[in-house]
Amino acid sequence: MGRVREYIKVNGKKFWTLFDTGARNTYIVPRVAAQLVTSELHAPFRSALGGGVKESKQSAILEAIVEGHRVSTLAMVIDRIGKDEDGKPIDILFGALAMQNWSIRPIPDEERLDLSHYPEEFLEF
């Protein structure tokens, strides 16, 4: 499992983010969601996360800047993600599906992200 932590920008504000290949989806806390347009879900989604079950009643399109690169992905809003290994509260959990979509590869041994394959344009068929 690959995990890297760093700040990313959402609407010009920095948020502590955990890039975690062990999580399928992307999650944000309410203070991040306050920077975005959210949608109420018809029924809540439940996710096993951080040793417990979290419930999301809202989703948002997370538009952010990761190391100078624009990304956009669906995020579920949950009350609390948890803390990292150093006890710092996590604002955004950036999941595997979003990393795959944007060709972001965590390199945990070096505590950095590899964005060398970031798509500058999309070729759709």
- The name of the CATH architecture is Beta Barrel
CATH homologous superfamily name? Acid Proteases
- Might you state the CATH topology name? Cathepsin D, subunit A, domain 1
Count of helical segments?
Answer: 2
- Which H/E pattern describes the elements? EEEHEEEEHEE
CATH domain class name: Mainly Beta
General description of the model:
By secondary structure, the protein is mainly beta. It has one domain: Cathepsin D, subunit A, domain 1. It has two helices and nine strands; from the N terminus they run βββαββββαββ. The protein has a seven-stranded mixed sheet with strand order 1-2-7-3-6-5-4. It has a two-stranded antiparallel sheet with strand order 8-9. Strand 1 and strand 2 form a beta hairpin. The longest helix is centred in the C-terminal third of the chain and has 6 residues. It is globular. The relative contact order is 0.26. The model has no long low-confidence stretch (mean pLDDT 94).
Supply database-style keywords.
8% helix; mainly beta; Cathepsin D, subunit A, domain 1; globular; two-stranded antiparallel ribbon; 125 residues
Compact summary:
With 125 residues, the protein is mainly β. It has helices spanning 30-33, 96-101; strands spanning 3-10, 13-20, 27-28, 38-49, 52-66, 69-77, 92-94, 105-107, 112-114.
Helices and strands, with pairings:
Layout: E1 3-10, E2 13-20, E3 27-28, H1 30-33, E4 38-49, E5 52-66, E6 69-77, E7 92-94, H2 96-101, E8 105-107, E9 112-114
Parallel strand pairs: 2-7, 3-6
Antiparallel strand pairs: 1-2, 3-7, 4-5, 5-6, 8-9
